User: Fold this.
Amino acid sequence: MSQQASMRWIGARVPKLDAPWKASGEVRYLPDFVVGGMLHGKIRRSDRVHARVKSIDTSAAKKVPGVHVVLTAKDVENVAFGHGKDNTPFKGDVVRCIRDELAAVAADTEEAAEEACRLIRVEYEDLPALFDPRAALERGAPVIYPEWPDNKPFTYRYAHGDVKKAAAESAHVVEDEFDLTWVSHCCMGTSAIIAAFDTGGRLTLNSLTQVPFLYRRDMAAIVGMKPEDIRVIQPTIGGAFGSKLDIYPFEPIAVHLARAARRPVRIVFSRQEEFLASPTRQPAIIKLKSGCDARGRFTFRDAYVLLDNGGHTSWGATIPFVMMQTFSSLYRVPHVRFLTDVAYTNNPYSGSFRGYGNLQATFAIEQHVDRLAEKTGLDPLKMRLLNAQEPGEETGQGLKFVSCGLRDCLDSAAKRSRYEEKRAAKKGESGRRVKRGLGMASMLHVGGGAKIYRSDGCGSVLSIDDFGKVTLVTGSTDIGQGSETVLAQIVAEVLGVHLDRVKVVNSDTDVKPWDVGVHASRTSYVAGNSAMMAATQAREKLLKAAAEQHRLPVEELSLADNAVMHTPKSGVAKKLEPIDRLVRSLHFSDRAELLITQAYFEPGSVKQDKEFRGNVSPTYAFGTHVVEVEVELDTGLVKVLGVWAAHDVGKVLNALGIEGQIEGGVVMGLGYALTEQLKIERGKVLNPAFRDYHLLTAPEVPPIDCDYIETEDPTGPFGAKGVGEAPAICVAAAIANAVYDATGVRFTALPLTPERVLDGLIAAGVTKDVGAR
Amino acid sequence: MQPQVEIRFTLNHRVVTAAVPPTMALLELVRDRFQLTGAKLGCGEGECGACALLMDGEPVLGCLTPAVDADGREVLTAEGLCGAKGLSPLQQAFVNEGAVQCGYCTPGMEIAAEAVLLEHPTPTVEEIRRGLEGNLCRCTGYVAIVEAVQAAAGGGR
Assistant:
């Protein structure tokens, strides 16, 4: 794709187009608007983690004043859905986790619906329950689904090379078990939906989904409709981060309630419900063995991963797709084996969450890089540089790195943090009870989608009206990350118009063309390329029309300042005609033509084969973080003093937007590393409230410094690649490496709370146990 | 039917009256009766700050403050920060500095920021960060929000 020499919009600090409406308080989110005649829906969930449902008595609930309908599994055709086809809107016979939906009420007020839910009487017969995925795979373990007597619905096997041989020939080998727990997305806006049928039977959903077209198809199957009879409108979303990538039971329940009540129904989760019944980040147990030769070159990696699937399957079960890429391809490793088992338990289930398994994988891998570096006698920075991927590399898994800025990321993060100087200086401070340490970690992630469906494309329709206003109708979705603004910048740049002339329409499946959805850091790349194609066609049409009308060679024409410019062979550019006048001359003439173009961009990636080989994304994002920490040996408190990040972003499209993505992602990674944990014991969530779930607050955020490595990927729009997920991925690994550097103690589980760190320091003999706790 | 209490207060520079049950939260009153939906119900427990409102220049949590407490007071929501010409300098700084992503926390965050600036017209970074401590944001990592408050303090006030 052609690039212009000097760019007005690409790379600029452009405030988000929707920010003024959000800053004014005017924007209405789903809980802020009402549909005429709307009822309020509430869900009655299970009180047990694994039980046979003997009876559900809804008679008292139905008598509550204001209640319109009460539904249970008996009242609807309860169609199975989800990646494992093991979830249903209502659970009729058996409940398998604490969030399971037993009944739902639609009433005039939320209070009446809540009261009715409380009055529903359920009789259970408890069944033996499983809470540990290791126990679930043991012989004779209770069976959660009769169809899966081994409790193992999914396995993933990937390998390249000969791990056994490589292990035997390695100079250094390290082995650890890492244990990653549940965390919650904590979107500030909770899960919500409004379902409304019109009199013709057509369904309109005001939904927060990130994947409107797949959602429409899935929803149609669940509620027994044709997809074309469902319109999905996506109002402003109060955060997503992956949590809205799947369809969850409350959504078809809202449709069932609306259908039964013949009234629109809105469901909005309370915060407690959000913690209990929205997906989490997938927990993982990772047994990893890694080796290198005497010079420090990686020889092999052998990973066994066990995932706790919970009681039903959502996207959490599929994170091995992403994890294995990091195991196989973050560095050059000639021999890799990766095996994953996914085990049913009676815990809540996990979905997709920014990074999609990569935070877990990177936590393990990047600590092993440091451990092998120590064994080899190399500095961790040198170890990484020695093994780093380079542009042009095709990895054992078949990932093709057309552009790759990993080395530059390592150099930049190290240089700006004064990594080598600080690592050397710190040696002299023995005896202090507060220790400083520096750690680094790198990451690899898809940077332009992942071809897991038949198409990973995005459609665009672009029009320029008689007044020169450009409207881009894109299939993609803005979940708050600012994709709408980036797409407008791309269009403005290509068409030489001011950004205020560009409107992006992206929130209605009745209007917009198909797109897979927001995931796999694909929107800037895929929707960006699609918008660029449509804009480029419009530019060509405008220039061709101007050339014909003014009898000038098209090569001498260009677009800038909302006008067609003419640059004679010898001479300066001058304004030939404003774009709006040119559009009108096409419209109100014998040509009778409107300026409308359309494009469908399909990235040059492939669907992987059964052995998970193939170039699943057209481009990949790389990054390195260095963190400096202070650890109080007597309390276990880890204080982060600074984060120096470097990210290969291809090309900065919006300097302001990318800062927000990096800073937000880093802080999300810091929360994962230090404070966040959804505590689940015997299947029950113990801390479903912000006061007990520690999200980082403004005073706790350390200085974050980021450098953007612009590798200008030849396939990206203006060279860009996706960076939405990247900044969260390697934070925890860098922190763990820094804590080790400070204390000499390795931590293989998260979060690194004072309690966990102090226990580790005491166990290692660094801190004396005074028995005060 | 609960007993109703007649209250009279200033809401975003206009005098209003309402009959409210004593158990009603101020957040519910401004959202449901006056359709000022900028303030959000983020948790209902005073932990996230999305419902923050200014009452006589002091930040309060709309979800925990009884509506009757507003009687005789001056209540301001994010919508009320806007002037005749549109966004206030603080709100414009939120836009310009990238302090708004999904935007759900933004109205409450602006109220907390406004309270900081009322107390410290030229705040230090630490004063800003402490002032925003009760407001959660999952998108931005707070960096741009702190910068926006700094920018607003530096100019336009």
Notes: The domain at 5-81 of chain B is CATH 3.10.20.30 (Ubiquitin-like (UB roll)). Residues 5 and 20 of chain B are 5 Å apart (CA to CA).
